[in-house]
Recover the amino acids of this structure.
C-alpha cells in the first residue's frame, strides 16, 4: 500500500431515501478511512457497509422537541487495512470516537 486515503463527509443523515446513493458513493471513494458526521443514527448498528468495519457513536441525548435524531459520528475502516494496522477505537463518554492507527 502506497497511500492511505482518508475522507470526511457530513452525510446529513445516513438513513432515508438517499441511503443507497450514499452507500454507493462510499464504494466509489474507496477511502481506507472514512469519517462520517451527522449520521443521525438511532442505534450503533445504523451504519453498516460491506467491506468496512464501522465504529459508531450515536447522540446520547435527543431534545424532546426534535422531530428526528441529530448528531452521530461513524468511522469506517476498510477491512483490508485491519490486517496491516493495529486499530484501537476509544469510545469517549460524550459523542465522539477516537481511533488510533
Amino acid at each position: 500500500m502506497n497511500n492511505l486515503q482518508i475522507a470526511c463527509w457530513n452525510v446529513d443523515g445516513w438513513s432515508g431515501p438517499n441511503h443507497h446513493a450514499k452507500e454507493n458513493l462510499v464504494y466509489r471513494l474507496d477511502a481506507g478511512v472514512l469519517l462520517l458526521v451527522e449520521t443521525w443514527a438511532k442505534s450503533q448498528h445504523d451504519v453498516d457497509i460491506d467491506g468496512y468495519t464501522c465504529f459508531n457513536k450515536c447522540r446520547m441525548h435527543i431534545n424532546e422537541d426534535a422531530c428526528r435524531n441529530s448528531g452521530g459520528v461513524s468511522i469506517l475502516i476498510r477491512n483490508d487495512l485491519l490486517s496491516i494496522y493495529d486499530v484501537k477505537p476509544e469510545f469517549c463518554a460524550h459523542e465522539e470516537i477516537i481511533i488510533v492507527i
About this structure: DSSP finds one helix and six strands in the chain. The mean pLDDT is 81. The chain has one domain: 6-100. The first helix runs from residue 19 to 29.
